[in-house]
């Protein structure tokens, strides 16, 4: 974890090799999509970033062959930041090899109101290395590793999580999918938000119903953080049910 330069070089070299192996022969076209999401409570790694209030989250996503990039936004009110909104920029590559879809990317989290107003907060960068594969029909596993280098407001952090999803037979006009996620995140160093209980496990389980351009998701979230005053995230890390609706355009 400490040799970040070497780790990033190794990751870049591996990604470059996968790009060469999966590069398409035909010319690619730039494609775009817009996702509009409304949720009863925005949960980020088990923590409510809206203080248990609803959120609206637009997302512009661009792809060009195995390259992708985009812009994502959400209102926030709670968690480690207390600013009106978050604006994230992201990009990466999605090569394929031996039946596995890889995803190597980077996200730049920004909080414009915090930066402009001088309140506690600040932008930071996080790296992603993920994969997606199907051990058998209709069942998908997506392990992901996230790494945040030590930055002004954020300590060095690593997060490991995995999603398991199984698509069920059609239910009328709906395509139902049951899924679950389990993750673990750990911080070290002297970042602004470091606390003894920043090392924790989080999980969720739920049902998604897809119909045409719409997806309706019903999900249970929880963490192993204690529900007491010793938990700096007390009140936003406990168990909860979340309902989310997303429409994909065009």
Structure write-up:
- It is a single chain.
- The protein has 250 residues and is mainly beta.
- It has a single domain (4-21, 30-249), classed as Porin (Beta Barrel).
- 10% of the residues lie in helices and 54% in strands.
- The protein has two helices and 15 strands.
- The chain has helices at 4-22, 112-117; strands at residues 30-39, 43-44, 47-48, 55-64, 67-75, 85-93, 96-97, 100-110, 124-136, 139-148, 156-167, 175-188, 200-211, 214-223, 240-249.
- The strands form two sheets. Strands 1-4-5-6-8-9-10-11-12-13-14-15 form a twelve-stranded antiparallel beta barrel.
- A hairpin with a 2-residue loop joins strand 7 and strand 8 (100-110).
- The longest helix is centred in the N-terminal third of the chain and has 19 residues, at 4-22.
What layout of secondary structure does this protein have?
Layout: H1 4-22, E1 30-39, E2 43-44, E3 47-48, E4 55-64, E5 67-75, E6 85-93, E7 96-97, E8 100-110, H2 112-117, E9 124-136, E10 139-148, E11 156-167, E12 175-188, E13 200-211, E14 214-223, E15 240-249
Antiparallel strand pairs: 1-4, 1-15, 2-3, 4-5, 5-6, 6-8, 7-8, 8-9, 9-10, 10-11, 11-12, 12-13, 13-14, 14-15
């Amino acid at each position: 974890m400490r040799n970040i330069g070497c780790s990033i070089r190794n990751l870049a070299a591996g990604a470059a090799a996968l790009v060469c192996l999966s590069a398409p022969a035909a010319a690619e076209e730039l494609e775009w999509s817009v996702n509009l999401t409304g949720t009863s409570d925005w949960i980020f790694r088990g923590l409510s970033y809206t203080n248990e209030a609803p959120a609206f989250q637009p997302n512009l996503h661009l792809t060009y062959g195995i390259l992708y990039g985009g812009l994502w936004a959400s209102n926030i009110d709670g968690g480690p930041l207390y600013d009106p909104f978050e604006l994230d920029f992201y990009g990466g590559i999605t090569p394929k090899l031996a039946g596995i879809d890889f995803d190597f990317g980077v996200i730049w989290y920004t909080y414009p109101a915090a930066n402009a107003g001088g309140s506690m907060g600040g932008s930071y960068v996080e790296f992603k290395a993920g994969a997606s594969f199907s051990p058998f029909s209709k069942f998908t596993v997506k392990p992901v590793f996230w790494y945040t280098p030590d930055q002004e407001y954020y300590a060095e952090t690593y997060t490991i999580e995995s999603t398991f999803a199984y698509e069920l037979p059609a239910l009328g006009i709906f395509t139902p999918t049951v899924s679950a996620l389990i993750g673990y995140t750990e911080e070290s160093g002297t970042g602004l938000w470091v606390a003894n209980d920043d090392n924790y496990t989080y999980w969720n389980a739920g049902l998604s119903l897809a119909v045409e351009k719409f997806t309706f998701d019903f999900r249970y979230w929880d963490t192993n953080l204690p529900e007491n005053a010793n938990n700096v995230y007390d009140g936003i890390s406990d168990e909860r049910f979340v309902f989310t609706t997303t429409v994909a355009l065009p």
